[in-house]
Amino acid sequence: MPASNASSCCSVLLLSGGRGQRMGGRDKGLLNWRGRPLIAWLHDLTRPLSDDLIISCNRNQEHYAPYADQLVADQEQDFQGPLAGIRAGMAAARHEQMLVLPCDAPLVDHALIESLLAQAGSQPVVIRQNDYWQPLFCLLPTRLRDDLEQAWQSGERSPQRWFGRLTPIAVDCPVQDSRLANLNTPDMLASSANID
C-alpha cells in the first residue's frame, strides 16, 4: 500500500535477505518480537516516509509482500551478504535517495532517520559510532548505483569498504546507542523485548 505522502523524498530499503545463521537458519525478519514480526516494526516506522518501500528478501516472499511496494532478491543464490541486497535495492529504487535499514533493528526511531535524511545530498550518509561505520544504517544517493555495480563486478562484497571509497558523511551516535541494536541472536531477541 503506497504512503499517503505523494511527495515522498526517498525510497526505503529494508534488508532481510540473509541466511539467519545466528538464528539457526530462521528468517530474521519474520521472527516475532513483542508479538509481531521484526519486519512489521520497520515497516510501520518507514511507511510514512515513502511510496517506494523495498524489501530485500531471498525467501518467504509471500510473507514479506504485504509490507512492501517492491520485493527484490540477490541476483546470485548463495547469500553474498548485505551489499548484494543493497545492490538489488539500488537497481529497483525509484527516488534519488534510498534509506537503508536492517530488518533486525526494531529500536530505530524517527530521530535517527531524520538525522540521516537531514544530510541528504550527493554523498552517502552513514551512521558512525566512534571510528566504526554502521553501513547498514545509511542514506544513499541512487546515482551511485553504477559505482556500486562496478565495485561489485570487481569483486567487492564489503559495504564498509565500498562506503570507505566514497567519503561518506557521518552521523555520529554513541557506542551504546540502543537504537542500533541488531537483534540477531535468540538471546538478544528475548532480552530486548522489555527495552523501551
Whole-number count of domains: 1
How can the largest sheet be summarized? Answer: 7 strands, mixed
Total beta strands: 9
User: For the record, what CATH class applies?
Assistant: Alpha Beta
As residue ranges, the low-confidence spans are 1-7
What is shown here, in short?
The protein has 196 residues and is α/β, with parallel strands linked by helices. It has helices at 38-46, 61-64, 82-92, 110-117, 145-153, 159-164, 186-191, and strands at residues 11-15, 32-33, 36-37, 53-56, 70-72, 97-102, 125-129, 132-141, 169-172.
Give the tags.
globular, 196 residues, 27% helix, Spore Coat Polysaccharide Biosynthesis Protein SpsA, Chain A, disordered N terminus, alpha/beta, seven-stranded mixed beta sheet, two-stranded antiparallel ribbon, 7 helices
Can you walk me through this structure?
By secondary structure, the protein is an alpha/beta fold. It has one domain: Spore Coat Polysaccharide Biosynthesis Protein SpsA, Chain A (Alpha-Beta Complex). Helices cover 27% and strands 21% of the residues. It is built from 7 helices and 9 strands; from the N terminus they run E-E-E-H-E-H-E-H-E-H-E-E-H-H-E-H. It has a 7-stranded mixed β-sheet, with helices on both faces. Strand 7 (125-129) and strand 8 (132-141) form a beta hairpin. The protein is globular, with a radius of gyration of 16 Å. The relative contact order is 0.18.
